[in-house]
């Protein structure tokens, strides 16, 4: 059995780990809340992309994980693991489900991210994809770890209307010290700009800032802010540039983003995929061929495809005409979670 890796924590300038505040014991005088029925699903709160982190004592910070957003539902009859798009993936993450069953709680809904850690303790999206057998794969991941960062329901009580500080306190109360397949996503306190700089220096994805006094509100409300070291988003593949010289016959992938209810071109990506990736993409995109491109692309040797495959792409910014700069392909996301496709209407950074 492989030794399970630990996530690398955010560090301050002296190299000291910036961990959560010590867990406080529950107040026995706290009044009991009325029983609330457990929801079948809670639409997730999503983070807005911003170029710089917000500052002030009302904000807490966490590591930004590079994996799959999941909700773990713990019930007396068992555990359900639900994707961001609302699909049941309990069978894809059996180790996480087993660890959740052993937490010793009657009912709970944990919000968090499933990741695979590399040897440096960083979340590795490509490794997660491989552990699941790639896009459309049926493999169950035995390597994934679930980092919980919010608690939406606990012990018969709906917590979504309570402020984040209370939800985090309860989450820490029963997850602190857990080192198995379900762990606590530690929060850090300090200057947001310094934390971001340290995260980037450590090679992390970025940070998330969350307003400690806000309830849990679904959608992109601005209560949560994400700031990335290197930008990475999901884009729809609308075709490819054929090349006899390139491995697999793909010179580059043609990409589009959402713009409200329509699509807009964001350029192409021609690096990052290996020969097996290119061969799979070519074969799959050829089955999706269409003579009518979803968005206009001018050039020779273009093969257009129906907007079905979702690529995770790392890039360094945007050009003046709205294309990705220095883009690199990271892998495919599952089609069930097409809500994750980048929407340029939501981003002031583009």
UniProtKB/TrEMBL annotation:
Q: Could you give a GO molecular-function term held by this entry?
A: ATP binding
Q: Where is this region: Disordered?
A: 1-37
Looking at the record, the residues that make up the ATP-dependent DNA ligase family profile domain are: 137-228
Q: Which family does it belong to?
A: Belongs to the ATP-dependent DNA ligase family.
Checking SUPFAM superfamilies in the record gives: DNA ligase/mRNA capping enzyme, catalytic domain, Nucleic acid-binding proteins
Q: Name one Pfam family in it.
A: DNA_ligase_A_C
Q: What class of enzyme is it?
A: ligase
Q: What is its EC number?
A: 6.5.1.1
One of the GO BP terms on file: DNA repair
> Which of UniProt's keywords are assigned here?
Ligase, Plasmid
Q: Which NCBIfam families match?
A: NHEJ_ligase_lig (TIGR02779)
PROSITE patterns according to UniProt: DNA_LIGASE_A3 (PS50160)
Protein name listed in UniProt: DNA ligase (ATP)
Q: Which InterPro entries would you find in this protein's record?
A: ATP-dep_DNA_ligase, DNA_ligase_ATP-dep_C, DNA_ligase_ATP-dep_cent, LigD_ligase_dom, NA-bd_OB-fold
The superkingdom listed in its UniProt entry is: Bacteria
Q: Which reaction equation describes what this protein catalyses?
A: ATP + (deoxyribonucleotide)n-3'-hydroxyl + 5'-phospho-(deoxyribonucleotide)m = (deoxyribonucleotide)n+m + AMP + diphosphate
